[in-house]
Predict the structure.
Amino acid sequence: MNVGFIGLGNVGGKLAGSLLRNGVDLVAHDLNPDLVQGFVARGAKAGDCAAAMMRDCDVVITCLPSPTASDAVLQEMLPEVTEGKVWMEMSTTDEAEVRRLGAAVIARGGAAVECPVSGGCHRADTGNISIFAGCGRPTFERILPLLTLMGRRVLHTGEIGTASILKVMTNYLATANLLTLSEAMVTMKAAGLDMATTYEAIKISSGTSFTHETESQLILSGARDVNFTMDLVLKDIGLFQAIADRNDVPLELSPEIIRIMKDGQQRYGARAQSDRIIERLEEVTGHKVLADGFPTELIDDEPEETGYEVVINREPVQ
């Protein structure tokens, strides 16, 4: 397939890099020409504009920072959508919006897939990230070979819209984990515990999580740069709250998580790294949570492997 990729930022650039590294004929486009030239130097072609990419490519992938950006790019591409064309949306977006845009693509004879990723930028860089894919089964099987080049574990979630719902749920859970970890580590520091020992205690216990095994290391090293900013966190947890509101679920923790993250954004800036949220508690207590021996950046040391579909176990209980 001739593949176009629009959006070469923190996540998109790494996903596009996996395609290029694995021999895909790639056309790259971004508002930042330096990012495009970096891909051209590695063997990609430069895309002129979104419309031309949809006209000339079999598949166009978008990985953009907001639903507004995705809408603008899709509207530009839509006149060039014809039978057999595929639009793959890898941004984290609103399920109602991706369903609306997907329906417009399908109405013109194309296929639409939402395929957000989860697992952090360091895993996106090595093709070991997880991917959720929402679309019809025939479309999923058609684009699965591309997905397994970008991700290790690929889950078909159902029709378009389902992947976006699950994606914002996972980001909500990750944010909740980050806040409870912040409270736990500052409390252990105040109680006189060694921070490296605290990290290991959490890691080997029922209190561990993916967030702990990744972001806690950046907190302890003092780097606090997980390549995910507070404005993006607030977008995602706001989308999760909206899903709950639409379905009349009276959430109790979610509004408090939103309040805390908004306070962090006001203190440190909209583009501050999300793991700086621990500094709210550090400042009020006077306890700095740091330890020697932790990395300043996350590096995925798992060997790259071709991905696979995660098969859901639906066997009845005996």
